[in-house]
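Let's practice the habit of predicting before peeking. Look at the sequence and jot down your guess about where helices and strands might fall. Then scroll down.
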Amino acid sequence: MNVEKFLSDKQVAYDAIPHRNTYDAQRLAQVLHTPGREVAKTVLLRADGGYTYIVAVLPATKTIDFDKVSAAYGGSKIELATEIEIKQHCPDCEMGALPPFGTQYAMKTLVEQSLTQDDEIVFEGNSHHEAIRMRYEDFRRIEEPLVAQFAVQPA
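Done guessing? Here is the structure:
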């Protein structure tokens, strides 16, 4: 799925922001001169031994509390997916790049509750050199994610 085409097809306003290559959300925030709490990082999680995959979307400044994600999904065993699994599920993306639209890849989407407070979200597109900025409300409307508190400040 090409993110820009997907958003255009959904008639959603967005800004594509080209930038030099970045390989994590904190670096993306630095390059874009945007606070890390306003940049959404996307992490692929494996549930129930790989029978279900979840695209978790959270602020760049936070980490995942796996117990909280498990509770949000009824006690499922939750693990971090590998780079290979990301590539298998998102073959149109650069290795390690993962847009926050799990439903477009037949996966579930989970959004950290704190991101719902922002008017806009910024996230990586299909590559490590382009970011997308769009209204959170548009994201919510087209993705209909599960919203839960599952992110914590790193120790």
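How did you do? The first strand starts at residue 14 and ends at 18.
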